[in-house]
Structures are given as structure tokens and as C-alpha cells.
Amino acid sequence: MLPFSVTIRPGRSLHDQIVFAATKAIITGQLQAGEPFPSVRALSQELQINPNTAQKALTTLVERGLLEPRPGIGTTVAPWRPPSGARRRAVLAEQLDRLVVEAKLQGLDLSDAVEALRKAWK
Q1: Structurally, how many domains does the chain consist of?
Q2: Mind listing the pLDDT tens digit of every residue in the chain (122 residues)?
Q3: Do residues 53 and 15 touch, judged by C-beta distance below 8 A?
Q4: Is the Cβ–Cβ distance between 54 and 96 less than 8 Å?
Q5: Domain that holds residue 100
Q6: Three-state SS annotation for 27-89
């Protein structure tokens, strides 16, 4: 059983969905630093996905500094460190831009988007 939940939704890449679910679990403290993370094999079997997709997701999480491969032990959750101020603002600006486009595409106004952000923040 996976130590985090992934809800597979059509229309989005499996890789992105797995990376998001694992990132959310780490950032919210559901997964703690030092805890073991599922292997490529376990992840692919549990989610019934291609092992290449599982490998790509783990590689992305390692590259982002969220997981640490530990020889002889396996992959574990890395201590989470927020990015620097400039990098943090750049990432946030990019994500907000995507959110605004999607909200407008769905016909939402600013107050709807702000309310959705408030709910998600909690």
C-alpha cells in the first residue's frame, strides 16, 4: 500500500499526477523526512502503471530534492527545504499564471478563484 494517495484523472499525465500527489504528501507532512518511499516496482504495481512512468516520477522527485536515493537502503523522503526567495517567487508566478488561465477558461471570476484558493490553502 502506498503511503500517499493518488487519484488518477484522465486528461492529465500520470507522471504529473504522481509527482503532485507525492509532493503534496511531503509538503503537508504526511510523509516525513527519512521515511522509505516506494520503489519503482512497488509504485508501478500499486498504481498499475508502466514502470517507466514510475521511474520518471521518482527521478523528478529526486531532482526536486524531495527524495534521496540511499545505497543499500532504498529511496527515502528528504528533509524538505523551501526554495530561495527569488526561485520561490518565480515558481509561484508561473503557477498563478496557469491558475488564472484555467479559472478564466472555466468562467470563474476573481472572487471565485480567491475563495477556491482559501479552501485549498486549509
Answers
A1: 2
A2: 888 889 888 888 999 999 999 999 998 899 999 999 999 999 999 999 999 999 999 999 999 999 999 999 999 999 977 777 787 788 788 888 988 998 999 999 999 989 988 998 87
A3: yes
A4: no
A5: 85-121
A6: HCCCCCCCCECCCHHHHHHHHCCCHHHHHHHHHHHHHCCCEEEECCCEEEECCCCCCCHHHHH
